[in-house]
Specification:
2 helices; 55 residues; mainly alpha
């Protein structure tokens, strides 16, 4: 059993690299589907006035 664990054992540094690579890959896959705007790209005049309701 210990020999089997040694085959599949991943050191912490390699695990961090794998996790980082997976994160980058997922971000690349999702990027075309996510719309992002920066503050300087938003024109506040395009937004409706804020309505507060107290119930």
């Amino acid at each position: 059993m210990s020999s089997l664990r040694s085959i599949f054992k991943v050191n912490k540094n390699a695990a961090n690299i794998l996790c980082h690579e997976r994160t980058i890959r997922v971000k690349r896959m999702m990027q075309p589907f996510i719309l992002r705007r920066r503050k300087d790209q938003v024109r506040l005049k395009d937004l409706p006035n804020k309505i507060e309701r107290i119930e």
